[in-house]
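Subject: design request, 158 residues
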């Protein structure tokens, strides 16, 4: 399993934004109000993922990875990579959705009062999704062994 490529995440954001925009054009009238709290749960997940990244990084740098009491098991690090990859993909899809909503709302703010009211909440939700992607990539980076050489573009898995 190789590291999550940023270009793949950007492609997921773009594809979701295009599909989401087409969907929002059809179903926006049935949306509930979008408040600042709408995407705040993503920020909580991002903080948890980033905190776990700092913990894993500290344990790896202290040499406390391996089998034994008080050590971080190698399978826990592998599971952390799995959580990081899943969080990065989910965050990028959700970011694409909120970018689609914002792209729909911005031009309609002067015409529709509800669009003006929903814009701030959609922007906050998009920023929280971006924070989740950043935290997930941070956790994935923290799970690398300190002895691992940096990956060059020629040796990256396809």
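Subject: RE: design request

Done. Sequence follows.
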């Amino acid at each position: 399993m190789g590291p999550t490529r940023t270009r793949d995440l950007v492609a997921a954001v773009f594809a979701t934004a295009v599909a989401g925009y087409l969907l929002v054009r059809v179903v926006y009238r049935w949306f509930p109000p979008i408040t600042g709290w709408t995407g705040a749960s993503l920020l909580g997940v991002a903080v948890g993922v980033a905190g776990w990244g700092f913990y894993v990084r500290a344990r790896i740098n202290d040499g406390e990875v391996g089998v034994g009491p008080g050590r971080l098991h190698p399978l826990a690090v592998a599971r952390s990579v799995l959580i990081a990859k899943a969080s990065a993909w989910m965050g990028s899809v959700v970011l694409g959705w909120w970018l689609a909503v914002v792209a729909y709302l911005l031009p309609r703010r002067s015409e529709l009062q509800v669009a003006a009211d929903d814009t701030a909440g959609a922007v906050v939700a998009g920023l929280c999704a971006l924070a989740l992607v950043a935290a997930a990539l941070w956790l994935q980076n923290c799970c690398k062994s300190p002895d691992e050489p940096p990956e060059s573009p020629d040796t990256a898995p396809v």
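Residues 29 and 114 are 10 Å apart (CA to CA).
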